[in-house]
Amino acid sequence: MSKKMKSKKTNTKNNSNKNLSPNSKVITTNNFIKEKAEKKINQENITKSNLKTKESSNKNIQEKNTKKEKNHNKITLLLSLILIFGGIAISLYPNISNYFAEKNQVEIIEKYEELVVSIDNEGLEEEFQKAQTYNENLAGDPVHDPFVEGSGYALPTNYTSILNLTDSGIMAYIEIPKINVHLPIYHGTSSDVLEKGVGHIQSTSLPIGGTSTHCVLTGHTGLPSAELFTRLDELNIGDIFYIHVLNKVLTYKVYETKVILPDEIEELQVVKDKDYVTLVTCTPYGVNTHRLLVKAEQVEYEEYVEPTQETNNTPVQNVVNAIEEKNYYYLGYIIGGSILIILFIILIVRIILKKLKRKNSK
Known about the structure:
Blueprint (H helix, E strand, L loop, with lengths): L2 H17 L2 H97 L2 H17 L32 E7 L4 E7 L3 H6 L1 E3 L12 E6 L21 E6 L2 E13 L14 E9 L6 E10 L15 H47 L1
Parallel strand pairs: 2-3, 4-7
Antiparallel strand pairs: 1-2, 1-5, 3-4, 5-6, 6-8, 7-8
Helix pairs in contact: 2-5
């Protein structure tokens, strides 16, 4: 480019600058500063808006997480409580079930006693004579294991009609004071009978006593729904129990306890001129490969009196009082134990939830 052109451009620029007034220069500067300030404000607003959006998003995420965590804690707590209460229910089931089973048994015994009282002496004697005739006809018949179904054989057709005063099939009831047992005695040894009380082995003497008789009574051990003969192994030589049949109370004293194999049935045969009752249950507990025999002989009536305790109650009243006392004991034990366990669980759960909240706040 030539020197003339350069000098011409410079002069034009200088001339244009010269033509701008001082006020125009100030306005231009102000506009520039204003634009810059506006840009800064806009950027700050955008930044603030972004921060608010981010904070709001984080807050929403945190709230969602907190909500999820709360829901998770609630579900965990609910499942824990369900499992705990389920465990408590399972552990208390035997006691609760046994309580209601015994309550039902005492009602059956009371109905039996009421019916016996309502029958005149002539009617009772007639029923007793039928039972005696039945026992006499059993002489020489073999005995079979009560816990093996189908091991029996044909018996006199009137078996179920003898000593059957009620529709429930109860022929008598047994009272074992030492182990607080009061159970109805039913005809036969079917599974239904052995789940609710004591069964009478059909090929043995009916429980009415008399010379050359041997009555064999059976009951389950360790049944979840009822105690039955579970504590039979606590009986020792010299202990007594009672058979309540019709209007009679027969007293039997234990003279031997032993464990046999199921096929050793000679232990259950009638012995001439003797009046025996043998109580049978399975043993060992949960294995049931053998049979526990508690063998007793009839003696003169004597009232059972616990050490340091005396009573003038009738035998029937003793039965009712003992069962009611036992039932109340079980009921109190169940309710008290359940309340304590529930309170303990609630305390543990609250401690766990507090710890979780502290962790979350950190």
